[in-house]
Hints:
alpha+beta, Rossmann fold, five-stranded mixed barrel, 8 helices, 35% strand
Amino acid sequence: MSTEARSLSFExxxxxxxGIEAIRPLSLDVKAGEFLTLLGPSGSGKTTLLxxxxxxxxxxxxxxxxxxxxxxxxxxxxxxxxxVFQNYALFPHMTVFENVAYGLxxxxxxxxxxxxxxxxxxxxxxxxxxxxxxxGQLSGGQQQRVALARALVIEPAVLLMDEPLGALxxxxxxxxxxxxxxxxxxxxxxxxxxxxxxxxxxxxSDRIAVMRDGNIEQVGTPAELYRQPANVFVASFLGESxxxxxxVTQLANGSARVALSEHQIEVVGEGAMGLSVxxxxxxxxxxxxxxxxxxxxxxxxxxxxxxxxxxxxxxRLKLPHGSELWCRRFSSADMPEEGRDVRLSWRDQDVRxxxxxxxxxxxx
Length: 364
């Protein structure tokens, strides 16, 4: 599989259905050889954007490019793409070999080339020895890998994946996530993936574009989005979040000070873009950044519940005015008792001050 990877570019793309804006004008570049995931809740526009890339939906405005070529008006068959569907869309009356070979046969490849490329694709998908099996004899994970091999064997410029792991159970999903990541690192095929599963996005992606209401809220690496979310929506959607609300009282040298009126304290943290003095803002403190003590300075709270998650314990805490926070600690550590009053503290460098909302905008 040697076709050179090409970029995928959405330029001012917009789409409405019956007067409802599914995609507001946006731009997004998927770099050549990159694995980018569109992440967002139902109705955010991620599947519509994928279908525009595939040619199943024609945009109302804007252009779509693969490399330097404008493919906006091309049919799906002429776009040099591979597609992996959530339900796999395999042919049940064909063997594994025949399923993977199908796209090559349609493209008129000679028999020896088909045999070589199918063998290579099945080897990469770790399906050696399964060539003659019927689809019904395979597990869900194996079927998913057949679908992936079928998409890759045609050596597409761009690989599109629509919730490819949605039909798998949790344990199998985790295994296949790692398999897909391994394959991508071997092939560096330009990939656009769609999911609403944050773990899947974090594990598999080079970058993630978080979508809401037809907009792209933020694009970044998994680490960037987790550590530096642009607003409360991104922080809440990616990872576990503790968010207190207050009003910005000071901005200086990249930091912000927020007054939490109901708690009668001020919090200092790293300030995100888009903040101004006097505006409402969210104070983001991840559960792993909270420290508990039974005395001393800090925000008063009561331990409500301990939830054991294997090597981690999630501790639910209630503040005096009724809002709740979560803390995470290793289960080997000493645990406070349920009903115990504690004090919460954190380091300023572990706090991020973020806007409550964002306005529609384009993303690079």
